């Protein structure tokens, strides 16, 4: 089966002649006017003019913001030409040409990052954006393509995203668990303290420094999310596992943006993490599915009881069966079990572990290629190789 993967590649336009620079600037500023004032008398490339109307009605942008010019996919092209001295890559931008009194296209020399050269194909290019920043022209080229993902797996890697760790991942077959990422909370706390001390020391420059710290903080967090997503995908690859993750309340998939968006403000950027993970898994040829996360943190993974408590930090205790487990590991186990379509209250059956998903079904291969339940209370808990010193055997 196939999944659509989208990569936004930032390419820089360079060595522009005065005429091209003028036409880009002109198009850019006319676009701003069109976005702010729909009735204005403007001259834009016709397809771009329609995009301006869309931006105005969909985003209703504030007057003190600038909006990137939306370039419709059928009006843009990128070409490779090694023969040209000036540039290897050329990007065609649609603009209104006042001299001709009509739409025109200009070819601009472009710099494409090496690692994304393979994406520079017309059939991949979706609607993209022209951005003007620090005197430079960039195109945020949106490249969408289909990648094949496997339908058969040998295990399930369940991911619980948390406030304490970025994520905890547990294999359903033997509950082998890894704790990923620096504690996001520690990073947040570190910057919060820094901001506080700066705010006190220098009132005047404080605001600027704090802004810079904010940027640095979000970069640090973003790096950690990328690293975590890479680790999880690598782990899944080792065992040929399908990845499932707990879907936080407030996360929904936005079809227009082709990614998960978060309507609520969380301290942990769950939606971003979900997007990174899904993207990287699909590129790896691996399915990655959201699972509803409600109750997974208060339910005992072993017996399904909700008669539990979490009085000891980071632990969960079950009053029904006596489980004493790492709380995140317990949550991830529940997510994994839910993914294979079992109600965890009912006895585990050998009915076959099938992840139901609209249009697709994933089969979990058991021994001898027969489908079987990937987990049972008797055969798990044998392996404890997780990295946390705080985790003890639950027996
Ligand atoms: Zn229990």
Question: What features would you describe in this structure?
Answer:
This protein has 395 residues and is of the alpha+beta class. It folds into two domains: 2-148, no CATH class; 152-369. 29% of the residues lie in helices and 29% in strands. It contains six helices and 20 strands. It has helices at 18-36, 46-59, 184-201, 203-238, 270-283, 327-339, and strands at residues 2-13, 69-71, 77-80, 89-97, 102-111, 128-133, 136-148, 152-153, 155-161, 167-171, 177-180, 241-247, 251-254, 259-262, 288-292, 308-309, 315-318, 324-326, 354-357, 360-364. The strands form five sheets. It has a seven-stranded antiparallel β-sheet with strand order 2-6-7-1-5-4-3. It has a five-stranded mixed β-sheet with strand order 11-10-9-12-15, with helices on both faces. The chain has a three-stranded mixed β-sheet with strand order 8-20-19, with no helix packed on it. Strand 16 and strand 17 (315-318) form a beta hairpin. Helix 1 (18-36) runs parallel beside helix 2 (46-59), helix 3 (184-201) runs antiparallel to helix 4 and helix 4 packs parallel to helix 5 (270-283). The radius of gyration is 26 Å and the shape is elongated. Residues 342-360 and 367-395 have low confidence and may be disordered. The chain binds zinc ion. Zinc ion (ZN) is lined by residues 300, 302-303, 305, 318, 320-321, 323.
């Amino acid at each position: 089966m196939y999944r659509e993967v989208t990569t936004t590649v930032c390419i820089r336009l360079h060595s522009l002649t005065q005429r091209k620079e003028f036409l880009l600037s002109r198009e850019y500023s006319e676009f701003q006017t069109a976005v702010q004032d729909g009735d204005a008398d403007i001259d834009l490339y016709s397809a771009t003019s329609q995009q301006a109307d869309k931006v105005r009605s969909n985003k209703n942008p504030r007057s003190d913001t600038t909006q990137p010019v939306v370039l419709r996919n059928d009006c843009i092209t990128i070409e490779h030409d090694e023969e040209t001295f000036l540039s290897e890559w050329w990007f065609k931008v649609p603009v209104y040409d006042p001299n001709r009194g009509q739409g025109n296209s200009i070819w601009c020399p472009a710099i494409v990052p090496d690692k994304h050269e393979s994406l520079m194909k017309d059939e991949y290019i979706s609607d993209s954006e022209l951005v003007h920043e620090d005197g430079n022209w960039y195109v945020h080229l949106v490249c969408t393509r289909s990648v094949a993902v496997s339908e058969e797996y040998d295990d399930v890697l369940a991911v619980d995203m948390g406030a304490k760790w970025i994520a905890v991942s547990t294999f359903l077959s033997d509950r082998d668990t890894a704790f990923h990422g620096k504690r996001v909370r520690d990073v947040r706390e570190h910057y919060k303290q820094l901001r506080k001390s700066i705010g006190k020391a220098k009132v005047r420059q404080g605001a600027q420094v704090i802004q810079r710290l904010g940027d640095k903080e979000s970069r640090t967090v973003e790096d950690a999310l990328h690293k975590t997503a890479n680790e999880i995908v690598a782990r899944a690859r080792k065992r040929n596992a399908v990845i499932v993750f707990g879907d936080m309340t407030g996360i929904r998939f936005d079809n227009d943006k082709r990614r998960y968006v978060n309507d609520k403000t969380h301290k942990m950027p769950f939606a971003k993490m979900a997007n990174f993970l899904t993207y990287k898994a699909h590129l790896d040829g691996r399915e990655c599915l959201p699972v509803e996360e409600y109750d997974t943190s208060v339910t005992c993974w072993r017996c399904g009881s909700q008669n539990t408590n979490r009085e000891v930090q980071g632990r969960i205790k079950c009053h029904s069966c006596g489980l004493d487990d790492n709380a995140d590991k317990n949550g991830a186990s529940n997510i994994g079990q839910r993914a294979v379509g079992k109600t965890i209250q009912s006895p585990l059956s050998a009915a076959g572990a099938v992840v139901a998903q609209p249009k697709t079904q994933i089969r979990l291969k058991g021994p001898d290629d027969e489908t079987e339940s990937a987990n049972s209370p008797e055969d798990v808990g044998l392996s404890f190789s997780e990295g946390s010193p705080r985790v003890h055997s639950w027996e």
